[in-house]
Amino acid sequence: MLNTSIFTVIGGLVAFVSLSLLVCLIIIRALSNIAKRSHLARESIRDVQRGVLVIWFAMVVVWILQTLGFTSLFSSVTLSGVVGIGITLALQSTFGNLLTGIWLLSDNVIRLGDNIRIMSLEGTVIKLSFRSTWLKTSDGSIVVMSNSTLYNGPFTNFTAKERLSKKFEN
Fold first, then answer.
1. Does a structural domain hold residue 89?
2. Does residue 111 contact residue 125 with C-beta atoms inside 8 Å?
3. Which of 129, 125, 133 is nearest to 150 (CA)?
4. What SS3 state is found at 160?
5. Using the 8-state DSSP alphabet, how is residue 145 labeled?
6. Per the domain annotation, does 98 fall within a domain?
7. In this predicted model, what pLDDT tens digit does every residue of 103-147 receive, in sequence order?
8. Can you give the pTM of this predicted structure?
């Protein structure tokens, strides 16, 4: 009887870890495809993949600890809430840049190679990531600006006129 319940628990754990890893890999593949279509930098794609894997790993560890009886659901939720608030407060500007980077890419407002002007800066977008955008100015200087600065603009995109005007015609 005891051996049967141990095997049942182990089988359930293996099934949960396997299925959740499969879902995690599907999410990673979908996010990677979206990021590649948006011409996002490879480092940013790897950061997203690692982030999803870390979240998956944390969820699996918490679920295993709950299943084995080492922790309760209440304590897990409380601890994750406190940790989440701490991380959010510590990384508030980073999260702001991350979200604005996602909005810029999903709105298709800016792409690699676009010529833009923001404030007194004018240049060509040479790198897009979730946290920052790099511009190369006419004198060859590289300007790195946070995505929240770019998003709060206003900025002018000189090369996306046709692409953006089609968006408003529909």
1. no
2. yes
3. 133
4. coil
5. E
6. no
7. 777 777 888 888 888 888 889 989 887 778 889 998 989 999 888
8. 0.52
Taking the C-alpha atoms of residue 47 and residue 128, their distance in angstroms, rounded to an integer, is 13
- Residue 1: pLDDT band (50, 70, 90) is very low
Structural domains of the chain, count? 2
CA distance linking residue 119 with residue 77, whole number of Å? 45
Residue 108, SS3 per DSSP:
coil
What is the mean predicted confidence (pLDDT) over 66-74? Answer: 77
Strand-by-strand arrangement of the 155-157 sheet: 142-146, 132-137, 121-128, 115-118, 155-157
Query: Would strands 142-146 and 115-118 be described as parallel, antiparallel, or unpaired?
Result: unpaired
- The 3-state DSSP class for residue 170 equals coil
Residues 97, 148 contacting (CB under 8 angstroms): yes
- Euclidean distance between CA atoms 65 and 5, whole angstroms: 17
Residue 157 structural domain:
105-169
pLDDT in tens, 148-170: 888 887 888 888 777 666 666 65
